[in-house]
Every structure is written in C-alpha cells, then in structure tokens.
Design brief:
By secondary structure, the protein is α+β, with helices and mostly antiparallel strands. 38% of the residues lie in helices and 20% in strands. The radius of gyration is 22 Å and the shape is globular.
C-alpha cells in the first residue's frame, strides 16, 4: 500500500468551477493545484475537432474563445437529476452521453491529483448541494446516483458524499479559537446552500458532528442564474428579446432564454434549432436584430456571450465603472452597458429569494439573526457585492467572513473523509 493511500481526496465538483484537496490521516488538508498554481479551474470541457484533443478548465475556455473548431461543455452539474444526463450529444463523428462527459472531467481531476500526490487516489468525498433539484426527492436522489456512477467510472473505488456547506464549516472551524454559532453560506454556480452549525476548537475531534448541525437549507439559485438574468436584461434585447414585430407582438422568447443558459446553448447549434430561429424573421420589425441572432448561432458565439456577461458581472460587482459587455464579435462596435445600480435592481428578486432561504435556515435552527456569531461565505458567487449587502441587511450583528471562495469546500470534504475513516 502506498504510504499516502490512507488519506482522502475531496472534490468540489461545481457548476462553474471545481477544486480538490488532499487530507492525510493527520494534519491539515492541502488544496491541490489544478492549472499551474491555480487550485480551482472552470468546470469546462472542450472537444477540439481540429486535432481530436480534449481540453479542460481554462485551457478549454481559451481554445473555444480562440475560435478553434469543436464543442465547449459547461455547467454539466446542472444536468444531474435531469433525463438529459443520459442523453447523447454529437462530438465530431461520435455520440457521447453527458454522463460520460462528467466521467471524463472527474477522471482528469483524478489524474491531476495523481500527478501531485505520486499515486492515484481511490477514496473520494464528493460535495453535493443541499438540493440538486428543489422539491423533488426522487430526482435529487437520481442526481447523486449519477454523480456517484461518474466518480466510480472515473476510477474511484470508495465514493462518499457530504453536503457542501457542511464541508465549508469543517474548513472554517480550524480558524476559530472559541465556540460560536455560524451560518455557512455556500453560493455556487448552480445552488445556494446554507447551514447553521455549532463550531469550536473543542469540537473538532468529535467523530460524530450531527448534533452540531442545527439546520440546513438550499435553493436552486446561483451564479449562472445571475448571469442568465443579466444576459436577458443587457445582451438579449440587442438580438431581439422583447422586440415588437410588425403585428405588435414580441418575438418568441424561448431562444433567448436558452441562449442565456450555459447548459442549453449547445442545443441551439443543431440544424433544426437554427432553422426554427431563422423562421422567426417574420416576427421582427428590425431585421438587423435578427441578423445578429443568426450570426451568434451560425458562428457559435453563444458561449462567448455567456462568458462575456459573467466577466462583466464580476467587473461591475467590483466597482469598475466601465463594465460593458463587449459584443464586437457579433457586430463591430456593439456593446451592452452594465452598471452597479442596474446589477442591484435586476438581481434583486433572485437575491431576495436567496437571503430568504438563509433566514429560513436560521429560523429552522430555532434562532434569531442576533444569535448568529458569524456568516461564513464560500463559493465564487458569494463575492457578489449586492449579495453581501443583502446578507448584511438580514444579519446586521454578524460579521461577514470570506473564506477560501473556491478551495474551502474541497478542504472540508477531505476532512469529512477523515471523520468517516
């Protein structure tokens, strides 16, 4: 047996980004580098049909944005629990199921872990949201089963699961010197999960922590939902969304919602979908808008637009004055302005539902907001300033603590494997 094989790998397989950490039987968990020194990478796969190579992470996005012929796959986690996970898509001359693509990504993570550790890990704790699918226990169970199948197909022999916000709590606990009640907010690409947990240095050695978990809740809202809303408000009107046609009726909106949703974009490139969108021409008063839409689909710029919206959102949230979405790839000089005030207004409904879920979690624990000693933020979308402002308003006496936004859950998952050993 390899001397390190007694440890556990934690994998945070995220909608937008993924991360890994390794925990030996004793000592601190260590985040594992995935791309150079980066310990998180986009959950993205690009099938290069020019040289038949497969690219992952930032490399996948770069190849796609460079105009290389192929297929970019993102937001694969969003398909878990859906019948689509077992459907196939055309990759070059081959039909590949989406579950097989998830397997391929997890196998690549395992290979990169083996490169760092010197051996291929067999024990893994996978993170899972509180709800893969809201209000549907059967589909939620199916989602976890599919992810377990993919992990086993990727070569892992022992696969366990832990709730992602609980994993974040296990990581945060190592920074505390006194016992406290913490609301963990894990805001990822596809879900927002909350846990009220009792943490403290005297509790870390306890094998069974179930009594310390006072409540959990989650809602199927995350960063990709924020991006979709911003795309529909800023970008899609430039392609005809809400445009009034000759009879005074709006252009049918389905194509715009799909084009603003990462995991649905690829379906719009199919010949039948393009023909259907072409037939919308009669619904437009301004043919230029329809020409833009057709250019996006025929030249397969959908993922580029989604990436550009995401980056503009990040810049806008960070206070950058000029956070416009650059659409020159569609039409020279075309830009979609984005401002901090509009960010707050357009995301208000989604943010309200997210914070309502956090407040409901605290009430389920039998607590009031003032009983919370800290709100611990993890997950990339928790850095969004309008979200943080909404949390401060809901929990005015609790300090907001930003954890490792991309690596904290993975470390906690690795610790969770140690607790189960």
């Amino acid at each position: 047996m390899h001397p390190l094989s007694a440890g556990t790998l934690g994998i945070d397989f995220g909608t937008s980004n993924s991360a890994m950490a390794w925990a030996p039987p004793h000592g601190l968990a260590q985040p594992l580098p995935l791309e150079g020194l980066a310990v998180a990478m986009p959950t993205a796969v690009f099938f290069n049909t020019e040289d038949q190579r497969t690219h992952f992470g930032r490399d996948a996005v770069t190849e796609y944005l460079a105009g290389t012929e192929g297929r970019l796959m993102r937001s694969l986690k969003s398909l878990l629990g859906s019948p689509l996970i077992h459907e196939t898509t055309s990759i070059g001359q081959h039909a590949v199921s989406f579950l097989d693509i998830v397997t391929l990504f997890l196998a690549e993570l395992r290979e990169r872990a083996a490169h760092t550790l010197g051996h291929a890990p067999e024990r893994v704790v996978m993170g899972r949201p509180v709800h893969f699918v809201d209000d549907d226990p059967a589909r939620d169970a199916l989602a976890q089963q599919s992810l377990q199948q993919a992990a086993e197909n990727a070569g892992f022999r022992a696969v366990r699961f832990q709730l992602e916000p609980i994993a974040a709590a296990l990581d945060y606990e190592r920074r505390l010197d006194t016992e406290t009640l913490v609301l963990v907010a894990d805001i990822g690409g596809g879900t927002s999960d909350f846990t009220v947990v009792r943490l403290g240095p005297q509790r870390m050695a306890r094998h069974d922590r179930s009594d310390d978990i006072l409540a959990t809740s989650g809602v199927h809202i995350g960063g990709t939902d924020f991006d979709q809303r911003l795309s529909l408000e800023h970008v899609m009107p430039l392609l005809g969304h809400r445009h009034l046609g000759p009879q005074g009726r709006e252009v049918p909106s389905r194509v715009f919602f799909d084009l603003a949703t990462w995991h649905l974009i690829q379906w719009l490139y199919a010949p039948r979908a393009i023909d259907q969108t072409q037939s919308l021409r009669a619904n437009y008063s301004d043919p230029r808008l329809h020409e833009r839409l057709m250019r996006v689909l025929r030249e397969r710029h959908g993922h580029y637009l989604a990436h550009a919206v995401e980056q503009a959102k990040i810049r806008c949230s960070g206070g950058e004055a000029d956070a416009a979405v650059d659409l020159s790839i569609v039409e020279a000089g075309l830009r979609a302005p984005m401002a901090a005030a509009s960010l707050q207004a357009q995301l208000g409904g989604l943010l309200s539902r997210t914070v309502d879920c956090a407040q409901a979690c605290v009430r389920s624990a039998g607590l009031q907001p003032q009983h919370i000693g800290a709100v611990y933020l993890t997950g990339g979308s928790s850095a969004l300033q309008p979200f943080q402002a909404a949390v401060r308003a809901a929990f005015p006496t609790a300090p907001l603590v930003e954890g490792d936004l991309f690596g904290g859950v993975a470390s906690g998952l690795a610790y969770a494997g140690r607790h189960a050993a």
